[in-house]
Amino acid sequence: MEKLPKIALPAIFIGVVVLIIVFKSTVTIGSGEAGVLYKTFGGGVVTDESPMGEGFHFVAPWNDVFIYEVRQQEVFEKMKVLSSNGLEIKIDASAWFQPIYGKLGKLHQEKGEDYTQRVLLPAIRSAARSVVGRYTPEQLYASKRDAIQEEIYTETENIVDDQYIQLNEILVRDVTLPPSIKDAIERKLKQEQESLEYEFRLTKATKEAERQKIEAEGKARANRILSESLTDKVLQEKGIQATLELARSNNAKTVIIGGGETGMPIILNDK
């Protein structure tokens, strides 16, 4: 085997070094990501320029690029907090968030890559403790879940507002009460429902009785007015009018004038 020329080994060494330098001098940033440039000999983290966007980039081999996901993300948190009367409540919540793109350098410099653990989750826990502590278990169970979700979001947003994090939403997925408290609340709600149902039936029956009473009084008043208006002369006049109508009828009949106790005509069929 022939020996390599003396220049070959240095050439190979230089080639390897060049490849390493080229490899260290390029970075590819994926979709939904951005890069924070760290200049080893130029002041450290670059905070006064926009982050490096998606795609292929050349950087000096002695510098570093820290890649962050900048699209919306979600973190989950299970918490144990106390209600206003000191009972332990379990809350299962999640947060939708993303780093503020233009502040990515500041976020990296001050909070670091694990900013969700350092900033966001502690903020959510603090807000949840503060909000839930205002309510009783009955309120949390019955009607306040949407309210505490909004309040936790507002308080968390206030905490992270100057922490270079954009909070999009807080979702309270579950509120778990102690079993004994939950059972007691359910029994109370059932009793209240039964009481409301009984009151409804009672009110309905009372209104129906009042309606019947008013209807009966109306009928009695109408009958009284009608009775007072029907004098003997009126009745005789009505009878005469009816007799005349019958007399004009084509039906065969016999009319006896002045018949009966009242002197009203008596009508007899001839059949």
UniProtKB/TrEMBL annotation:
CDD domains the record matches: SPFH_prohibitin
Entry's transmembrane regions: 7-23
Name of the protein in its database record: Prohibitin family protein
Membrane topology: Single-pass membrane protein
Main location: membrane
Subcellular location: Membrane
A Pfam family: Band_7
SUPFAM superfamilies on file: Band 7/SPFH domain
Boundaries of every Band domain copy: 24-189
Protein keywords: Membrane, Transmembrane, Transmembrane helix
Organism of derivation: Mesonia sediminis
